[in-house]
Specification:
Helices cover about 45% and strands about 15% of the residues. It is an alpha/beta fold. The termini are close together.
């Protein structure tokens, strides 16, 4: 069964959740980013607690990337932020296949690291295209 780890900016939170739901419905194993509410959850705590929470969430998501067959960057407007750039570099270093909805809107150096660009701003269409390319194996 194909495992897809989703990466993307928190500004695309709704699109990421929609993508995850649609990919799961299509039969994929989907690992989602933690899309942090860390500031809310650590309100009133020390800076050290916030730092540890962010560090834990970051390492947890990097571990999800290690488990992936495909890393899918949900970026319907072409935006790839600093955290997604970190995740992209990690995925490249670990020889993961990387798909994105759109090329990076601002930095060619990131776009050239995508193995597959769907050129699609619509989540449903992107998931349909991914499903055709990486159809989950059906157990006998």
């Amino acid at each position: 069964m194909t495992t897809i780890t989703i990466c993307g900016s928190a500004r695309h939170r709704d699109a990421i959740y929609q993508t995850a739901d649609l990919l799961e419905e299509a039969g994929f194993i989907v690992l989602k980013p933690p899309l942090h509410r860390i500031d809310e959850l650590t309100a009133g705590h020390s800076a050290e607690v916030k730092e540890l929470a962010w560090k834990g969430a970051t390492f947890a998501h990097l571990n999800r990337i290690l488990k992936a067959d495909v890393v899918f960057i949900v970026n319907p407007d072409g935006y790839v932020g600093s955290s997604t750039t970190l995740e992209l570099g990690y995925a490249v270093a670990h020889h993961k296949l990387i798909a994105a909805m759109m090329p990076d809107a601002h930095e060619l150096a990131r776009s050239i690291l995508f193995d597959l660009v769907l050129h699609c701003t619509d989540v449903e269409k992107a998931v349909s295209d991914l499903s055709k390319r990486f159809a989950p194996a059906v157990a006998p």
